[in-house]
Structure formats: structure tokens, C-alpha cells
Design goal:
homodimer; about 525 residues; alpha/beta; Rossmann fold; Luciferase, domain 3; nine-stranded mixed beta sheet; seven-stranded mixed beta sheet; 26 strands; globular
């Protein structure tokens, strides 16, 4: 068998040779601004890679992007690995000092950024004054290079890059709610296999028939792996531009007859509301994949029944490239069963392994009832952080996910909590995630977070922070809705009503901020 | 990322942990004789692997199977690699001397065989008197070991085997129509990636929902890769036993609600006839995958319209593990277009690369018209034969398939001939495959082969060897049907009517025998 390494640049060759006429479509503010083909993409990527090498980028160097979802970012996804370097997608929602931290930690050789993000990058540039900076759009300022010049002027590189399959192709930093960001390095082989897994009929099933919309930020965990998968299968890719409004997203789906969309539940709620209000027809979608947090049953029902679009849940984390599990309900399941299956995190993708362990590291049975911390391992699961930081996140080569989960005997995962979000009350554990799921079904509740507050007698007690729906909310009714659904002693001591939940830079509820507020009596 | 090797034994772990209750079902002569689960399968495989090691099998040793399609053979598929050895599936249709040749060439350490195949194995055993022999069923004779004892008595091996991903996991010999059989060694990594590819939505799309029937012989090119794919996704596997009649196959599909069946066109013709006669309902099949030779349009139409079963074509060869391309028609294609697409060999599976070259090795354009020899390369394509034999079959690491093909600009392959089946007439080439395809559509033609016969003036001329349908055939009508479909000078000089076409041990038309017969005037 040919012993060539598994390199992500194979997917560039694949798109050029097997789908030269398929499309990359750019939108800005709901207007289509560009249509191009994989043939053009390939030519631009190769010239860009040549230009990066001419700029001094060497094999193994990290090259940073600070950019939204547009064709230039998609070009960099392949051009940087083709140049033999490591694509470092910087989270543009980080504070400028945090951006300086990750760019410094990665020792990025070059930074390529959207003009609008110059302020965010200022401290990083100040700290690395010798780092070449390329502006992706608009006119260069203060010694910057113009991206357009690189693409026009580069000498095309013919692949493959001088890399082995175990060398890094990409790097993302996780935005933990505690401690400094940690880098997750992705090898070529990891991303290659992750891309194959994205095409599995039992998984995301991304196929040549698809027209995918990239709503997930491209700095976020390889955009869930969808760009590489689309290249591999020859699917069209639609880029909605910077911060699209939900009306733009709906219009793009309708106009482009998009078939695959991944998004966080919060945005999906907005999309459902929008479609209900306007009658937008989203039925070209064959899959709306929810990820990032657990969707409510009602959201799943609304997507499937009101929009007429099949819903799925994909679960994973930056440390798992990120696809780890996928919930695909049994084909003959009744609607209720179906929605329940989609709300769970689903089955482990082939190629990965899992374990459930208690706090002493002993195995927990997969009986659907017992809870344990989920450990993961496999070709696209991190077994260390970049530069070896935080080794306690790994156990004998297994990733400690920090998630508390149950696995049923049929191999379905249900994440029930973060280890650090468990509430210790009177020597027992209360699951804040289970409480949140139950509260989401209460009347008048649009969004909710449950946090632990210190308690003299019980050590900790739960408090529910609730965002009311348009029609308002009644705290007593909210607590009443929990009856029979959770143990009586789980009932929150208080319901706090807020206008909106604070969120981290990647859109997760910022429980640290909530706890601080609650602790200080600011609610 | 975890740097563990990609080993096929991962699929055994996967089946045990993620589909312990899914089934392996054995039939004999149309009667179900055994049902077991992957949990039981895993336990048996581990004990069997332990017993093989106890028998003296060492890492890298070849271990031969000479067996039909049953659960024991399926156990050996995993137990031999788990023991660190190489699964050598011997073609049971070879002549006894040929079996002795391949067993000797592979230097098999152990032979495991069905009792009924003892005569076929006699010369191989005589030539290797020290080789332990295990009989899979029935009572051991003359120093043979009993398979049942190995499975019962073995000390379970816990994986993974002490192998790297580039070490061999399996070995098949090709049955070329010229020269001695050549061995194709499959590395663990090759079969791992091939298995992933079998699950792709754009390919065979084998999924957890499937109940596959193994009609393809398990000695033949890894049974098209379906057993490993079924283990990976947790699909049920149904083994129809030795030489099932077509009525048995239909009954098994109906009783078991099978969803996936791969078979050669000749048998599919029989299946269609049987279903038409008996009204057998085969609509549980979501895919009937044709492979081994090009199906007729009429067969494809009959499968889709008369049986109500989606037809596909998978194409490949022993040297490609064997899946290389898959024809999946566009979803909105009209029936005619759809059938034409299925008749072509389809798109290259992700992970592989191809080239089309002329007789000087220069590239031939992918314009849908130009013909060239197809070269293949990739993680599951052979780049050499076992022990380095016949190096001229490879070109700079590329496999020379010996197939003449066209590739259209959209990346669809159409195999038009074997290099050695082209007919050289007056300095031009005539495609025997294209002629055969056209002749198959002529009235009264059930089967056909076109061969070259020497000609004084034109060098070679085509002769059609025709098997008539029940109602008989008229040679003039057969030739008349070619009008307008092929160039006039392609018309065969003669139509020879025979009762049946001679076939090789794997069911391909034996053109060498036909040419010899025609040459000797025996027709």
C-alpha cells in the first residue's frame, strides 16, 4: 500500500480534481458579494502558500488568522498547511490582551487579519513588533502587507508540503473559564481522519449533495470540521460574512438552497422565531446540527415540526477536533422519542474510544444511570496541550473532558454536567444541567442558568437565573414546573430574573460571572 | 493527538462496546442455523486468537483460511490479526495445485479449512507437512485440530496486537488470467481507512441501520470490505452459508429484512428472474451494490423498477482492497440518466488518487472522451505485490490497473476495456467491452463476450460469443441491433452461439479459454 502520509492538503487536491466547478459563495450583510469555484480556490491557495513561504514562513511555524467567515479565511485554512505551517485561528472575541497572550504563546510567525479587527490585535502587534502583518481586506496601514498582493504575486506551491502526518496542521486555543487559554495542536493525520468521520453516514454525513453554510465561527475548533469535509466531498460552501443577522441567515438558506447548517441552540431559537414570524422556508436543509450546549426539547420539536427540518446534535470540544459524538435518532422512533434522542449527545464516532470514571478513576458502568467523568481517546483527541501545559487534564493519554455523563447500554451518551458545575448540597450532588433542562420547559422561561451559591448548612444550594419570554415569567410557576421531574431537594432556593445571561467569547453562559454577581448581591 | 496506530482490531472493540447485542446470523441451505451477538463474537475471537498464539503463530505469520461464508470465517477475520498474524483468505475455487502454490508462496503457518474442502487442500498439505491444520466444522481427521476446541480452550487475548499500522493484517492472491497468482498484502492502516471509506455517505454508506448479507465470497478481496465496515458501524451480518441457491438468497433477504447486498451482475440477473417469478419482496434492501463486471442497463432498470430496490455499482480490484469507486446517481436524475450513471463506475472514493495515461505514460485529459489506462494510488491501493513480484504492474508507486477508461470533467469514471481485451483492427482500437454492452441490449441475447481473433489483413477482428435467452437468438438481428450504436467497422465478423460462457474461479468470463476455443475451431 502506498505509504504516503495522511495530509490535509489532500482535500485541496480532491476539490480541484473532483469538484472544480463547485462553489464558494460569500455574503456580506445578507447580500451575495462573490461567487467562485474550487478551481479558482485551488489556484489562489497555491499562490498564497508560495507568498507565505516567500515571506519567511518555515515548516512548523505557526501563522495566525484573526478573521471572520469569508473566502479569504477559507483560503488560509489550506494555504497555511500547504506552506508547511500551522494554521492558528485566533478567537476574535477574546480581549485584546488575551489575543496578545495566545499570539505570544504560539509565537506566531505572521498574523493575517480583517481590517476591522486591528484594534483587537494592537497589543499582540506591539508585543511582537517584528511579526509581519497582512490585512485581508482594504488598504494596508503602517507597514502591513496586502492580502490581495500575496494572492496575486505568489509563486504557486505544488503540494504536498514537507510534513509528516504527525506534524501539526492547525492550532486552536481553548477559552477555559478558569486559567490561561491552552493550545490544542491538531496533526495532519488527526484532521484527515476527523474529516473522513464527518462524511460517515452514521455521523454528519456531509456529502457531495450538500451546500453547507458556515455560521459557526471559523476561529472556533476548525469551524466544527465542516470546511475540510466540504472540500473532501466536493460540497458547496456558503460564507455568511461578519456577524450576520438571523434574517440574513434565513435569507441565505432560502436563496442558496442550503442543505447543512450547524449552529448553537441560542441562535437556533432565533432562527425558529424568525421563520415563524416571516414564513421563511428553510426546508432545503437536510440537517440542522445543534452544538455547543444542550438544546431544549421544545427547540428540537420546533425545528423538526415547525420548520420541517431534521435536527441533530453534534457534541465535542476544542480538544476533540471537535466532533466526538453525533445523535442520529432511530428511523422509526416516535416524535417524542426522537426529540429525546436528539437532546442526548448520541453515539461515539467510529475511531474514538471512551471511558466513564468516578472521582477515584475507577470505571463506572454504562448502564444509563451511573454517572462518571467522561474520558476520551483517539486519533483526533488531544493527549496533551501545546507546550505541555496543564498535564492534569490528561490521564495516561486519555483526555479528561471535565464532563459528567451517563452512557446507556446501547452506547448513547448523555452529558449531565460539567464536573465544576455540580452543586454539592448536604453531601449529595445536584446536576445544574439537569435542572436547567427541566427549567427550560417551564412556562415563560426563554433561557436559564443554574449556579451554586454557598450555604451555611448544606454547603451549596442551587439558584436559577432565568431570562423571561416575551410574556413574562412567574417564579412560583417556574418552581412548580419542576415537580415530579427532579428530586424535591434539587429545587432552587431562589429564582432570579434577568434580561440576558452573560456569555463567554464563544457564546457559552459565563457562570463565573453569574456566581460573582449573585455572591455580591447584584442580580 | 493520541499517536496510537490504526489497527483493524479497533473494529472488534467497537462492535463489542457499541453494538454488543447486534447480530451475526448463519444460514445453511436457506435455513437459519445460528444467531449470536457481537458480545459473543468478541469473546470467541479473543479466545481463538489466544489459541492461535498457543499454536505457535507469531507476529507477522500468515495464517490461511479455506472456507465459505459463515461465522467461523468471520471470527478468523479478526482473530488472526488480533494474534498479530496476517489473514490469508485462500480462493476455494482455485485448482488444488494452485492452492498449494499460494499456501507455499505465502508460507502459511497454519491452515484452517471447512471439512468439505479437504480434497482441495490435499496438495498444499502434502507440500507443507509440518503446517498445523484446523478443521472448522465436523470431526478432525489425521492429526487435524478441531476449531471448536480452539475457541473453547484458548486463553483470551486482550488487544491491541503488537503491530504497527503499516504491518500487514491480510493477504489475498489475485487470480490473473495470465501468470501465477500474485499476493496483495493489506496493511492495518489500509484496511482501517478502507473501512472508514465504506461508511461514507457518498460511498457505500454502510451504517448502523444496516443488516448486510455476505453473498460475496469471504475469500474474495476482503469480501469487498463489508465485514469490517459492519463491525465498525455495528450493523448486523447475515452469512448465507456455502453456495446458497438464488431462492435461498431471496428468502434470507425477506426473512431477515436485509438492507444491503453486494453481488455480481450474473447473480443479480438470477435474483431479478426469481423475484419476478415468485413475487419475492426484496424492498427491505436500501442498496443492491453490483460489482465484478459491468451490469447491463436492463438489469439496473429491473432492479430499480421491478424489484423497487436502489441499485449502485461499486468498482475496484483485489489490488484496491477492493473499493475504489462508487456510482451514486444524482438525486434528481431521470430514470434513464440514473441507470446510465449506475452503469458507469462512478466517482473515486475520497482518499484515493487517479491518473489516466496513454501507452507512453503521458497524461490523457479527463474530458469524458479520451481513453487511457487508469492508474491508482492511495492508502488502500497496492504499490507492490507480496514478495515484490511483477514490478511492471506498478509505475512510480502507482498501480497500473490494466483497465482502459474515460473520466468525464465532473469526475465520473467509465471503464471501457481491459488493456489486454482491446482489439487492434487496421491500426485502430475496438473496445470489446463497449461492443458487449451494445450486444447485451440486442433481442434474444442473455449474455455475451467479445474476443479478438487473428486476421490476415486487419491484424485482429472481433467475434461475438452469445448466450441466447430462452426464446432463442437470430445472429443477423444481433448484428442489426448494433447499427448506429457503434462504428460500422466495429461490427463483429461472426456471432457464435454457445450455451454458457466459461468463467474463471471468481466468476469473470474466461476470455483466454474462449480465444483458445475459437482459435481451435471448437465453438
Amino acid at each position: 500500500m502506498s505509504g504516503e502520509p495522511l495530509l490535509v492538503t489532500a482535500f485541496l487536491d480532491r476539490a480541484r480534481e473532483h469538484a472544480p466547478e463547485r462553489e464558494i459563495v460569500d455574503y456580506v450583510d445578507g447580500t451575495c458579494v462573490r461567487r467562485s469555484t474550487y478551481r479558482e480556490y485551488d489556484a489562489r491557495v497555491r499562490r498564497l502558500a508560495g507568498a507565505l513561504v516567500a515571506l519567511g514562513v518555515r515548516p512548523g511555524d505557526r501563522v495566525a488568522t484573526l478573521a471572520g467567515n469569508h473566502h479569504r479565511h477559507l483560503e488560509l485554512y489550506l494555504a497555511i498547511p500547504l506552506a508547511g505551517a500551522v494554521l492558528h485561528t485566533v478567537n476574535l472575541r477574546l480581549a485584546p490582551d488575551e489575543i496578545a497572550y495566545v499570539v505570544g504563546h504560539a509565537e506566531d510567525a505572521v498574523l493575517l487579519l480583517d481590517a476591522a479587527l486591528r484594534p483587537a490585535a494592537a497589543p499582540a502587534r506591539a508585543a511582537r513588533p517584528d511579526m509581519p502583518v497582512v490585512v485581508l481586506d482594504g488598504e494596508p496601514e503602517d507597514g502591513e502587507l496586502a492580502y490581495a498582493d500575496l494572492v496575486t504575486g505568489g509563486t504557486p506551491l505544488d503540494g504536498p508540503p514537507p510534513r509528516g502526518e504527525d506534524d501539526l496542521a492547525a492550532l486552536c486555543y481553548t477559552t477555559g473559564t478558569t486559567g490561561a487559554p491552552k493550545g490544542v495542536g491538531y496533526s495532519h493525520k488527526a484532521l484527515y481522519l476527523h474529516t473522513m468521520a464527518a462524511g460517515l453516514a452514521d455521523g454528519h454525513a456531509i456529502s457531495r449533495r450538500d451546500r453547507v453554510v458556515h455560521l459557526v465561527a471559523m476561529f472556533h475548533a476548525n469551524a466544527w470540521g465542516v470546511p475540510l469535509a466540504a472540500l473532501m466531498v466536493g460540497a458547496d460552501q456558503i460564507l455568511p460574512g461578519p456577524s450576520p443577522r438571523i434574517a440574513d441567515v434565513a435569507a441565505i438558506i432560502e436563496r442558496e438552497r442550503a442543505t447543512y447548517l450547524g449552529m448553537v441552540p441560542t441562535l437556533a431559537v432565533d432562527l425558529v422565531d424568525h421563520a415563524r414570524r416571516t414564513g421563511a422556508d428553510l426546508r432545503s436543509l437536510r440537517a440542522l446540527v445543534l452544538g455547543g450546549s444542550t438544546p431544549s426539547r421544545e427547540l428540537i420539536r420546533a425545528i423538526e415540526e415547525d420548520l420541517g427540518v431534521p435536527a441533530f446534535q453534534g457534541w465535542g470540544m476544542t480538544e476533540t477536533s471537535p466532533m466526538a459524538t453525533f445523535s442520529r435518532p432511530e428511523p422509526d422512533a416516535a416524535p417524542d422519542e426522537r426529540h429525546a434522542e436528539i437532546q442526548a449527545q448520541g453515539r461515539l464516532l467510529p475511531g474514538l474510544r471512551w471511558r466513564l470514571v468516578d472521582s477515584e478513576g475507577a470505571p463506572v458502568p454504562h448502564d444509563g444511570v451511573s454517572r462518571g467523568e467522561l474520558l476520551l481517546r483517539g486519533p483526533w483527541v488531544a493527549s496533551e496541550y501545546f507546550r505541555g501545559e496543564r498535564p492534569e487534564a490528561f490521564l495516561d493519554g486519555w483526555l479528561r473532558t471535565g464532563d459528567v455523563a451517563r452512557i446507556d447500554p446501547d452506547g448513547r451518551l448523555r452529558v449531565v454536567d460539567r464536573v465544576k458545575d455540580l452543586i454539592k448540597s448536604g453531601g449529595e450532588w445536584i446536576s445544574s444541567l439537569a435542572l436547567e433542562a427541566a427549567l427550560l420547559d417551564a412556562p415563560g422561561v426563554a433561557d436559564v442558568a443554574v449556579i451554586a451559591v454557598p450555604h451555611e448548612r448544606w454547603q451549596e444550594r442551587p439558584v436559577a437565573v432565568v431570562v423571561p419570554a416575551a410574556e413574562g415569567v412567574d417564579a412560583a410557576a417556574v418552581l412548580g414546573a419542576l415537580e415530579g421531574r427532579v428530586p424535591r431537594w434539587w429545587c432552587p432556593d431562589r429564582v432570579v430574573v434577568v434580561d440576558a445571561l452573560p456569555r463567554t467569547s464563544v457564546g457559552k453562559v459565563d457562570k463565573r460571572a453569574l456566581r460573582a454577581r449573585e455572591h455580591n448581591g447584584v442580580s
